[in-house]
Design goal:
It comes from Arcobacter acticola. This is DUF721 domain-containing protein. The chain has six helices and three strands. By secondary structure, the protein is α+β, with helices and mostly antiparallel strands. It folds into two domains: 78 residues, GMP Synthetase, Chain A, domain 3 (2-Layer Sandwich), CATH 3.30.300; 34 residues. Strands 1-2-3 form a three-stranded mixed sheet.
Length: 138
Amino acid sequence: MKKINEILSHLKNNPEFSKINTSFLIMKFIDVLPLKLKKGVKFGYIKNQTLYFVLTHPVYKMEFEYNKADIKSLLKKFKIANVEDIGFFVTNIIEKKETKKTDEPLYKERSYGIFENKAKDEKLFKKFEKIRDIIKNS
C-alpha cells in the first residue's frame, strides 16, 4: 500500500498538475522576498511570461519599484516557468474586516438577585454587590 507522501509526490510530478507546482513556486518565491516586501504581497500569478504581484497598499508599490532589480535577480535564480518580467499593482478591492460578534448568554438568567450578603470582608462584600447588579441588569 502506498503512503500519502508517495501519492502526493506522484501527483505533483504529473504534467496535468503543473499549475499547482507553479503556484507553489510562486508562494515559495514570495517567502524568499525581504520582509518589507513580503508583508505587502497579497498573492502572485503568472500571465504572458510575467509574474504579477497583487499588493495590499500603494506604499508597497513604491517599494517594489525601488527594489525591482533585486527582485528580478532573485527571480533568475528561482526559475519559475518561463517568467521573464515582473509586474505589480495594488488591488482596488477593499478587504472587509471581520466584525466581532457580541457574546450573548447561552442561558436565560433565572435569578432575580435577591439574596442576603453576609460577607464581613469589605472586598468580598463589594464583589457580591457587583454580582447582584449584574444579575439585576441581565
